[in-house]
Structures are given as structure tokens and as C-alpha cells.
Specification:
The chain is of the alpha+beta class. Helices cover 32% and strands 37% of the residues. The chain starts with a strand and ends with a helix.
Length: 75
């Protein structure tokens, strides 16, 4: 079951919306216009609870938004 996320990314200066799922080993995060990205739990540190999963999903979504911004702006 996907969990929805909506947050403001200060470094990008934009609102990001997406969702994530987890199988206990990987976090899968994304949104249609951003694409999707997966990472093993613990990729950016040790995340073992729901709050940690949410933090990892936000980082993945921010990475996707940053990559999309670079493609859109041609950088």
C-alpha cells in the first residue's frame, strides 16, 4: 500500500508530492512526473522505523525532483 507524501524542499525551493512503499528491505519512492527511485533501507543512514522510512522517501523524492529540474533547465 503506497503512502502519500507532500513536503517543501528548502534546498530546491519547491513543494514536492509523491508516494512511497517499502518491502522492509527497500524504499520505493516516486511520482508520475518525477519517475521512481529505490534505495535500500539505511542508504542515507540507519532508518528502521516509520519516521525513518518517511525521511528516506523524502530524500529519494528530492533527488528525483533535483534531477528533473536539471533536465528541464538544461544543466
Amino acid at each position: 500500500m503506497p503512502y502519500g507524501l507532500s513536503f517543501y524542499d528548502e534546498s530546491l525551493g519547491m513543494q514536492i508530492e509523491g508516494s512511497y512503499t517499502t518491502d522492509g528491505k527497500l524504499i520505493h519512492a516516486g511520482f508520475g512526473t518525477l519517475g521512481y527511485k529505490s534505495a535500500p533501507i539505511g542508504h542515507y543512514g540507519t532508518f528502521i522505523d516509520k519516521a525513518g522510512n518517511v525521511e528516506l522517501a523524502k530524500r529519494l523524492l528530492s533527488d528525483l525532483a533535483r534531477a528533473q529540474s536539471k533536465r528541464t533547465n538544461g544543466h
